[in-house]
């Protein structure tokens, strides 16, 4: 298979455009910040991450899968099972790995300080799904490469998973409104925007719930599922208690957030910003 970069970019642009249009036509929740300000800084962070990963990490997960296949490395290169079954199983296992990684980034303090940049967005919309600190992005890429090699994930499975992961991250962070019955039906299988919005609540017990990105089943299995925010979707406050200033959404501020000490205790159960 040829380099899938162009395919991934095309899928990214298509899904982003659809989600942005959906948000514009059918917004779920009123935004509290100026969209142009948030979007420009969130996109600047995406651009910076793309450059840093390209420079600092010589191979991506796709290339790692090719190398593993050529050398016979990893579980699925050592066992004989139908290719279609291994393909589906690998996508499911990669999604589980992302769930567990997400859970760990919430549980370990220094990792949480990195991941907190994602949660510090004062609104949640399609751009929030792409907003991560560069160090977290680099760690995530290295973890993904290690998992791909260990499992011997077929290259095509990596491409499918990365497209699903990017698309689902933009979808479930979208500020688009779904009919409640459709939301209830979809979240039996995949993570919906209403389900994931709980995860971005300022209430700490809600922040540390609903860790899934694509499949919703992991939160049910591991008892991290919370159906609705305490204050309801119209009133839920987005963000983290310790980062409440609008200027903290600037690119330079986001880059420094993991290294700054904030006054508010991150374990506070406060449900309002001060």
From TrEMBL:
Q: Which GO terms describe its molecular function?
A: oxidoreductase activity
Q: What is its EC number?
A: 1.-.-.-
Coiled-coil spans in chain? none
Annotated Fatty acid hydroxylase domain residues: 88-224
Q: Give TM regions.
A: 6-25, 46-68, 74-100, 141-165
Going by the UniProt record, its keywords in alphabetical order are: Membrane, Oxidoreductase, Transmembrane, Transmembrane helix
**Localized where?**
Membrane
List the protein's name. Sterol desaturase family protein
UniProt source species: Vibrio gallaecicus
């Amino acid at each position: 298979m040829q380099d899938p970069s162009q395919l991934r970019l095309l899928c990214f642009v298509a899904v982003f455009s659809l989600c942005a249009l959906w948000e514009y036509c059918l917004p779920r929740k009123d935004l509290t910040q100026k969209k142009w300000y948030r979007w420009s800084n969130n996109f600047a962070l995406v651009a910076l991450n793309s450059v840093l990963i390209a420079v600092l990490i010589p191979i991506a997960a796709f290339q790692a899968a090719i190398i593993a296949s050529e050398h016979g490395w990893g579980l699925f290169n050592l066992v004989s099972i139908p290719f279609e079954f291994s393909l589906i199983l690998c996508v499911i296992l990669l999604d589980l790995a992302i769930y567990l990684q997400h859970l760990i980034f919430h549980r370990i303090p220094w990792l949480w300080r990195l991941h907190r940049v994602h949660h510090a967005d004062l609104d949640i919309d399609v751009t929030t799904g792409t907003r991560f600190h560069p160090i977290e992005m680099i760690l995530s890429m290295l973890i993904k490469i290690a998992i791909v090699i260990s499992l011997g994930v077929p290259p095509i499975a990596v491409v499918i998973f990365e497209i699903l992961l990017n698309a689902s991250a933009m979808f479930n962070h979208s500020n688009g409104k779904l009919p409640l019955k459709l939301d209830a039906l979809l979240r039996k299988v995949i993570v919906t925007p209403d389900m994931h919005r709980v995860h971005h609540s300022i209430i700490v017990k809600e922040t540390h719930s609903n860790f899934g990105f694509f499949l919703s089943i992991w939160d049910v299995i591991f008892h991290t599922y919370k159906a609705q925010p305490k204050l309801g979707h119209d009133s839920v406050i987005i963000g983290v208690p310790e980062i409440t200033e609008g200027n903290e959404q600037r690119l330079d501020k986001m880059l420094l957030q993991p290294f700054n000490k904030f006054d508010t205790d991150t374990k506070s159960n406060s449900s309002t910003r001060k």
